[in-house]
Amino acid sequence: MAFKTTYLNQNISDDGRRELTIKEFKRWLMRFDTDKDGRISKSELRQIVRATGGWFSGWKGKAGIKSADKNGNGFVDESEIENLIQFAQKELGVRIVPY
Fold it and tell me: The EF-hand domain covers which part of the protein (predicted)?
Protein backbone atom coordinates (compact mmCIF):
# COMPACT_ATOMS: atom_id res chain seq x y z
CA MET A 1 0.00 0.00 0.00
CA ALA A 2 1.54 3.33 -1.01
CA PHE A 3 1.09 6.75 0.53
CA LYS A 4 -1.56 8.91 -1.10
CA THR A 5 0.00 12.15 0.04
CA THR A 6 2.49 14.58 -1.41
CA TYR A 7 4.23 15.45 1.84
CA LEU A 8 7.51 13.78 0.85
CA ASN A 9 9.37 12.84 -2.28
CA GLN A 10 7.92 9.93 -4.20
CA ASN A 11 10.68 7.39 -3.43
CA ILE A 12 9.14 4.08 -4.41
CA SER A 13 11.01 0.88 -3.63
CA ASP A 14 11.26 -2.16 -5.91
CA ASP A 15 8.18 -3.78 -4.38
CA GLY A 16 6.04 -0.65 -4.85
CA ARG A 17 6.07 0.54 -1.26
CA ARG A 18 7.15 3.97 -0.07
CA GLU A 19 10.71 4.10 1.19
CA LEU A 20 11.66 6.75 3.73
CA THR A 21 14.63 7.42 5.93
CA ILE A 22 14.02 7.52 9.67
CA LYS A 23 14.47 11.29 9.61
CA GLU A 24 11.94 11.70 6.78
CA PHE A 25 9.47 9.41 8.56
CA LYS A 26 9.72 11.40 11.80
CA ARG A 27 9.26 14.68 9.93
CA TRP A 28 6.24 13.23 8.09
CA LEU A 29 4.72 11.97 11.37
CA MET A 30 4.97 15.38 12.98
CA ARG A 31 2.81 16.87 10.23
CA PHE A 32 -0.05 14.98 11.88
CA ASP A 33 0.75 16.31 15.37
CA THR A 34 -2.22 18.66 15.30
CA ASP A 35 -1.85 19.91 18.87
CA LYS A 36 1.92 20.44 18.42
CA ASP A 37 2.82 18.68 21.68
CA GLY A 38 5.54 16.56 20.04
CA ARG A 39 3.62 13.34 20.60
CA ILE A 40 1.31 11.24 18.42
CA SER A 41 -2.10 10.45 19.92
CA LYS A 42 -4.52 7.70 18.89
CA SER A 43 -6.62 10.15 16.87
CA GLU A 44 -3.51 11.56 15.16
CA LEU A 45 -2.35 8.02 14.34
CA ARG A 46 -5.81 7.34 12.89
CA GLN A 47 -5.25 10.30 10.52
CA ILE A 48 -1.87 8.82 9.56
CA VAL A 49 -3.52 5.50 8.69
CA ARG A 50 -6.09 7.34 6.57
CA ALA A 51 -3.37 9.35 4.82
CA THR A 52 -1.63 6.14 3.77
CA GLY A 53 -4.85 4.84 2.26
CA GLY A 54 -5.24 2.28 5.02
CA TRP A 55 -8.52 0.72 6.03
CA PHE A 56 -9.82 0.30 9.56
CA SER A 57 -8.11 3.47 10.74
CA GLY A 58 -9.78 3.38 14.15
CA TRP A 59 -8.64 -0.15 14.84
CA LYS A 60 -5.15 0.40 13.43
CA GLY A 61 -4.80 3.67 15.36
CA LYS A 62 -5.63 1.88 18.59
CA ALA A 63 -3.38 -1.07 17.73
CA GLY A 64 -0.53 1.26 16.77
CA ILE A 65 -0.68 3.13 20.06
CA LYS A 66 -0.90 -0.14 21.96
CA SER A 67 2.17 -1.55 20.23
CA ALA A 68 4.28 1.63 20.31
CA ASP A 69 3.31 3.24 23.62
CA LYS A 70 5.57 1.42 26.07
CA ASN A 71 5.03 3.75 29.05
CA GLY A 72 1.23 3.52 28.78
CA ASN A 73 0.46 7.25 28.67
CA GLY A 74 -1.68 6.95 25.51
CA PHE A 75 0.79 8.77 23.26
CA VAL A 76 3.83 7.92 21.16
CA ASP A 77 6.63 10.29 22.04
CA GLU A 78 10.19 10.67 20.71
CA SER A 79 11.53 7.79 22.81
CA GLU A 80 8.87 5.44 21.37
CA ILE A 81 9.16 6.37 17.68
CA GLU A 82 11.23 3.25 17.01
CA ASN A 83 8.23 1.14 18.06
CA LEU A 84 5.97 3.14 15.75
CA ILE A 85 8.43 2.55 12.90
CA GLN A 86 7.98 -1.19 13.35
CA PHE A 87 4.20 -0.78 13.33
CA ALA A 88 4.30 1.40 10.18
CA GLN A 89 6.43 -1.12 8.31
CA LYS A 90 4.17 -4.01 9.26
CA GLU A 91 0.69 -2.43 9.09
CA LEU A 92 1.01 0.56 6.75
CA GLY A 93 3.26 -0.84 4.04
CA VAL A 94 6.03 1.69 4.65
CA ARG A 95 9.69 0.80 4.30
CA ILE A 96 11.91 2.81 6.60
CA VAL A 97 15.64 2.71 6.03
CA PRO A 98 18.40 4.05 8.28
CA TYR A 99 20.21 6.13 5.63
Answer: 20-55, 65-91
Q: What is the pTM of this model?
A: 0.72
Q: Are 40 and 47 in contact (CB under 8 A)?
A: no
Q: What is the pLDDT of residues 55-85, one digit of tens each?
A: 788 888 888 898 899 999 999 999 998 899 9
Q: 10: left (phi > 0), else alpha (psi -120 to 50), else beta?
A: beta
Element (H, E) at 11: none
Rounded (10°) angle between helices 22-30 and 81-91: 90
Cα torsion 68, 72, 76, 82: sign: negative
